[in-house]
Hints:
alpha+beta, Rieske Iron-sulfur Protein, 2 domains, 3-stranded antiparallel sheet, 2 helices, 9 strands, 21% helix
Amino acid sequence: MVDRRTLLLRIVQAFSATGALFLAYPFVKAWLPTFNQQHTLEVDLSDLKIGEIKQVSWLGRNVMIVRRTPEEISDLVEDKHELKDASSVHSRQPALAANQYRSLRPDVFVVYSNCTHLGCEVSASGTAASFNCPCHLSEFDAAGRVYKSAVAPVNLEVPDYQFMSRKILLLVKRA
């Protein structure tokens, strides 16, 4: 027969093990690949007018899609000496964004809305001509390139995407 002390010890061990499993579950779940999570997202751009911004949530992050004005496009062509990384050499972006617009098409700009300093959500300042981080006041131009005076170390991150048609954008997660 089991004595009382051994029985209480087994009960405490069982509760402790159960508690540890409940505590570890979110961490283990975050490390495992999620097979049910969709790795592509189609975005309809037919309602996006010139100068407007559309924000979508994809893979746990917000993505901003900006329809640039002709003035913003012409401003991006000019050489900018006040930018930290004007040619985006040190920034995270797919090969499609390795140009002065940092986008496939000059009129549509796609970017994650997280500041590269501490991950705060950036917002457009009135128009899409620039982005501002409310946490440490980092400023970015219409192509998400950071100004030299800002705290953010690199330009805003550009996700991988492609156009399915003139009005349909497909966000893609590549391995």
